Amino acid sequence: MTDTRLADLAAAAAEISVAAGRAILDVYRMDFEVTHKADESPLTQADLASHRLIRDALARLAPDIPLLSEESADIDYGVRAGWPEYWLVDPLDGTKEFVNRNGEFTVNIALIRAHDPILGVVHVPVTGVTYIGLVGTAATRQAAGGEHEPIHVRVPSADPVRVVGSRSHANPRLRQYLEPLGDYQMVSMGSSLKFCLLAEGKADFYPRLGPTSEWDTAAAHAVVLAAGGQIVTLDNRPLQYNLKPSLLNPEFLVFGDPERDWQALFRTRDD
């Protein structure tokens, strides 16, 4: 795939994410029903409306590229293991935040090639902000109707370090691991916005010790990489995709400043 085609796909995916965001807001503004999946995670009309819009639009855009979405994840690993590249989509990341009406939810569209994200779009329906990452090229932030502004991780990290954590999945283990940081600042945020804060230099470190699925992270992963950051597992391996039947991610660390030994925090204590 040429760089020009990849840029074109990114621009088109961004437009699709904005359209999906409008469909989500149509539901957000009215009374809506919340059901639950087998794993007890919430599901709304907005999740399904966004999924259908993105699925159909991506099929028109690139009929040669298969799709894996949170709302259509029952594709056998024997099939998807043979995909050289594919779209990985979370049509509404942060459904709990959506239900709580705090605005901290996103539309996530990623393109994965050979287990790594190469393109990612994260759209925030409530604010209209769109983050785009082309790995190896650049990351941008675009306000609603505005220009694309380049973003980059903060290097060196701030003092005190600004740590971002999940609003809906607080983890008591995390506090003990972070003690060696000293007087750090903690910011709680929902959905992929945690990654985006780091990508635009407003946070330094996001350790994720709780469960996530591959569609939760892929788009924002691309944005972080394109902005100069890294995402690694606790044993310091790059976070990758579509390597196994399970779609659950291992625990991981997101950071901008490569000169700090972030993994050392997790080597000093047993669980």
| Approximate strand percentage | 25-35%
Order of helices and strands: HEEHEHEHEEEEEEHEHEHEE
Radius of gyration: 18 Å
Biggest beta sheet attributes? 7 strands, mixed
User: Mean pLDDT score, rounded?
Assistant: 92
Strand order of the largest sheet: 3-4-5-6-7-8-9
Number of strands: 14
Helices and strands: which structural class? alpha+beta
**Low-pLDDT sequence parts:** none
Distance between the termini: 44 Å
Summarize the structure.
With 271 residues, this protein is of the alpha+beta class. The protein has helices at 3-28, 45-61, 77-80, 95-100, 172-178, 193-199, 214-226, and strands at residues 34-36, 42-44, 67-69, 85-93, 106-113, 116-124, 129-134, 138-142, 148-150, 162-166, 185-189, 205-208, 230-233, 252-255.
Write up this protein:
With 271 residues, the protein is α+β, with helices and mostly antiparallel strands. It is 30% helix and 26% strand. The protein is built from seven helices and 14 strands. The strands form four sheets. Strands 3-4-5-6-7-8-9 form a seven-stranded mixed sheet, sandwiched between helices. A hairpin with a 5-residue loop joins β1 and β2. α1 packs antiparallel against α2 and α6 runs parallel beside α7. The chain is globular and about 50 Å long. The termini are far apart.
